[in-house]
Amino acid sequence: MRDGTTRLIGPGVSDGVEDPAGLLVEYPAGERAGDPLARGADGVLRYGNLTPALTELLDLQVHAFATREAVVEIGGPRLTYRDLWHSASRIAGGLQEHGIGYGDRVAVHLPAGVRWVQAFLGALLSGAVPVLVHDGLPAAVAERVIADSGADFVLGAGSRGCGSTRAGGVADVELPDGAAFIDDGAALDDLALLCYTSGASTPTLPKGVELTNENLLSAIRSVVAALDLPTDGMRNLVLLPLAHASGCVDQLLPTFAVGGTVVLAPDPGRHAETLAAERIDMIAATPRILGALLPELAAERADGLRTEGVARISTAGHHAERVAAGAGAADLREVFPDARQWAVWGATETSGIGLAVEDSPADPDGKVLGFPFGGTELALWGPRADSGHGELLCRGPNVARRYWNDPKTTADRFTGTWFHTGDQVTIGADGLVRRSA
């Protein structure tokens, strides 16, 4: 572990008198030769060779892997990269015909599936900012999120966008359709995604997190490197919610970035058959989802289900999800004997990433959060920060700068370039971060 650097900032400095409550101890990551990260003028480590915008990165991959399957919905459509890009560009054209363009906000309020992916990419290609609205939110909360975002169009709601009907819990949405259109005028610093989170301190008050192209591209680059994602056509069964940063930013987009296939299985009863039928070699889920799935998979494995083809398992969670909520490393090893396992911790404000640990050590209390990666740097805040205990702060190229239309919460949760996670942690001599409360 690198030595902490102690500074006093914000409320910790007043007329030269040091207030221990304002003690901030930084744990800087050193720059290394050949590292793609370099420290900017603001002190944040940044990638120096990113494409100008997320749409440009995706466009490059579409041309490189045009005939590969991009997204598969079990029991639904299967689209190649070429087909997905063409359909998304036609949605973008339809949005343009509705007057939607650069900087407008388009809410995506659909269940996870191929149409969600088409709608999300269509909003991006129109030049608009997608607003992710989880399909499982109570109607009143979803309406509040849409209203707060000031959405100019809603994909999935007839009152302010395209119509949506439901039969058997499945949404049938008439997505906009027009002449193919792609807006490629975005820049790294532009707002690219508005993702809502309740957060630890305001569980009933969703907050819009502004994620820029740089945040998204940096998170993608970080995940690809940390999880060692291959470019030979990996097939990722994504069981994380696509309307959350962990599902969209950290799994969907990195899989597209390496030309892989995102497999979506809305029906939990088909997960076991999907593993074999779709030649799945990566699974992304929460510990709770995996914990519920493992007994069925263990029984199927005893009956001949082959799971050795799964080479990677990524579990993602924040706060309660990581507290002994489901599958442990030993349980996963028994069902997936050849898989490398990563546990990834993050918040929406950090683009869903920040800390990771491979083959997690014994963690019966769910307190291990991991080591920083991908340019994420850490600090501790509080009276015991200089002894390795305090509130965890993060900064990095993946960390948001502010909340949407909420300067007060922004001021409360951001100190300079540092984001206050609200988690009380310890940072050990080896650099491993553990939750302490």
Task: Give a structural overview.
There is one protein chain. Helix 2 (81-97) crosses helix 3 (114-125). The protein has a 16-stranded mixed sheet that branches. It has a six-stranded mixed sheet with strand order 12-11-9-10-15-16, with helices on both faces. The chain has helices at residues 54-64, 81-97, 114-125, 139-149, 213-226, 245-257, 271-277, 287-302, 329-335, 407-413, and strands spanning 5-8, 13-14, 17-18, 23-27, 37-39, 45-47, 69-73, 78-80, 105-108, 129-132, 153-155, 161-162, 164-167, 170-173, 191-197, 207-212, 235-238, 261-264, 282-285, 312-317, 340-346, 354-358, 368-372, 377-381, 389-395, 414-415, 418-427, 433-435. With 437 residues, the chain is α/β, with parallel strands linked by helices. Strand 9, helix 3 and strand 10 form a beta-alpha-beta unit. The chain contains ten helices and 28 strands.
Put the structure in a nutshell:
By secondary structure, the protein is of the alpha/beta class. The chain has helices spanning 54-64, 81-97, 114-125, 139-149, 213-226, 245-257, 271-277, 287-302, 329-335, 407-413, and strands at residues 5-8, 13-14, 17-18, 23-27, 37-39, 45-47, 69-73, 78-80, 105-108, 129-132, 153-155, 161-162, 164-167, 170-173, 191-197, 207-212, 235-238, 261-264, 282-285, 312-317, 340-346, 354-358, 368-372, 377-381, 389-395, 414-415, 418-427, 433-435.
Largest beta-sheet characterization: 16 strands, mixed
What general form does the structure show?
A: globular
Distance between the termini: 22 Å
Quote the average pLDDT. Answer: 87
The number of helices is 10
Q: Would you report the number of β strands?
A: 28
Share of residues in helices: 25-40%
Task: Report the portion of residues in β strands.
Answer: 25-35%
Low-confidence stretches: 8-20, 163-171, 319-325
Indicate the radius of gyration in whole angstroms: 21 Å
Output the structural class. Answer: alpha/beta
